[in-house]
Amino acid sequence: MRVLGVASASAALALGVAGQALACNITEFSAEAQCDGNKGVIVVTDKDGSGTPATITVFSKNAAGVEKQVGEPQDVKGSAQGTTVTFQEDWKPNATYRVHVKAGNLVDEDVKPDLVTPSTACKKEESQTPTPPATPTPKPSASTSTPTPSASESSSAPATTPSNAPSPAAGDGNLAETGANSNTGLIAGVAGALVVAGGGAVYFGMRRRGANSSR
């Protein structure tokens, strides 16, 4: 009987230790500040192999110790591989957060130590301005242009102004030389004097004949 009693006590003790090992424990919870793109998040991981449901609440703490709840509490059911819940929080560098875990009657305490964020904030994604396409350089046309004379060439060339006067007919030069010179008036005067003298001579000759016949 004594042997049977010792064996029963040993089995009960083993079952108690195994039950405690499988029960939810605060050491199975961890928190980390991460970046989701250019925004900050707080990720809490539950590695409770027993799968005990738990409620996670996160609080931010300032330098004066004043706390502010981050978002709403979230429920999680742990696993041996780890189950995570994410809190959207655009955290600042070197900020402090308190993570509280409530799992039925097994756990009701904070994750130790408090979460302290990295000293570098999440990087903002730089917006890339699209580069405008390069404007193609126009190629010179194959057509040839007429060269423009320079100012010196245009000034040295004689200016020929067309005349509206009719050109002289052939033979006009001879008429000008024979009848339009300064001797024409003199010849005409001598000829006139000769005609007058001849007429006077005829007149006097006829009168003389008349006088002789009357005798």
Give an account of the 3D structure.
The protein has 215 residues and is α+β, with helices and mostly antiparallel strands. It has a domain at 26-117: Immunoglobulin-like (Sandwich). It has helices spanning 2-22, 151-156, 172-179, 184-213, and strands at residues 29-36, 39-46, 53-61, 67-69, 74-77, 83-88, 96-103, 107-110, 115-116. Strands 3, 4, 5, 7, 8 and 9 form a six-stranded antiparallel sheet that branches. A three-stranded antiparallel sheet has the order 1-2-6, with no helix packed on it. A hairpin with a 5-residue loop joins β3 (53-61) and β4 (67-69). The longest helix has 30 residues, at 184-213. The radius of gyration is 69 Å and the shape is rod-shaped.
Compact overview of the structure:
By secondary structure, the protein is of the alpha+beta class.
How does the major sheet shape up?
6 strands, antiparallel
CATH class type of the domain at 26-117: Mainly Beta
Q: Mean pLDDT, nearest integer?
A: 76
| H/E element sequence | HEEEEEEEEEHHH
What percentage of amino acids are in beta strands?
15-25%
User: Please, how many helices?
Assistant: 4
Which CATH architecture of the domain at 26-117 would you pick?
A: Sandwich
Instruction: Calculate Rg over CA atoms.
Output: 69 Å
**Annotated CATH topology of the domain at 26-117:** Immunoglobulin-like
Shape, principal axes of CA atoms = rod-shaped
The CATH H-level homologous superfamily of the domain at 26-117: Immunoglobulins
| Helix share bin | 25-40%
Oligomer: single chain
- Tally of DSSP β-strands: 9
**Derived structural class:** alpha+beta
**Poorly predicted regions:** 3-9, 11-20, 175-180
End-to-end span in angstroms?
Answer: 237 Å
Biased composition (Low complexity): 140-170
Region (Disordered): 119-180
Keywords: Membrane, Signal, Transmembrane, Transmembrane helix
Transmembrane segments: 186-206
